Amino acid sequence: MINKKNLWFLTLFSLILVLSVYYITMPSELLLTGNGNYVDTSSSENTETEPTVSIEESELITALRVSADEELMEELDALKEILTDTKASVDEKNTAFEKMKALNINKGEETKLEQKLQDEFQLKTFVKIDGDQIKVVVDSNKHDTTIANNIMRSIQSNFDKKMYITVQFKG
After folding, report:
1. Hey, is 144 helix, strand or coil?
2. What are the tens digits of pLDDT across the range 67-114?
């Protein structure tokens, strides 16, 4: 039976785990103290200043990441409710905890694959793993089957079992 100390430990541990995954996946530009993203476009003659913001990633990739993060947080919240429910059995709580652990591992694997594709192919990508299916969205207008095949081979090399990988080019 899980007592109050163990329940608090599990809750705080899962919170720390979620925050560490968030910190790891956070773009490094947000961690810089300088305000280097803004470009001053005003001239000495014009008194109005209109700063422009340079965006590194496409809006599509960002939207996909936000959507996936919201979905992950909803699942984690539902699992946390099961863990904190006093009427839930020990088996239900263990199952919920294992699912939480699997979701966090899955998110870390997605981040690792995105970084690997960035390093190997210099492409901004979004990776979503769902069981044995992996969906890769590449931020590129150029649809290249050679790059798609290389991406699939690169991702498959990280797994022992056969994964079903789809690559989409959107830009």
Report:
1. coil
2. 999 999 999 999 999 988 889 899 999 999 999 999 999 999 999 999
Q: Name the percent of the chain lying above pLDDT 90.
A: 51
- Number of structural domains (the chain) is 1
Find how far residue 56's CA is from the centre of its chain. 16
- Helix 4-25 × helix 59-84 angle, to 10°: 180
Determine the Cα–Cα distance for residues 140 and 143; give it in Å rounded to an integer: 7
68: which residues sit within 8 A by CB, 6+ positions away?
126, 128
Helix and strand totals (H; E) in the chain? 4, 5
The range of the structural domain enclosing residue 98 comes to: 4-21+56-170
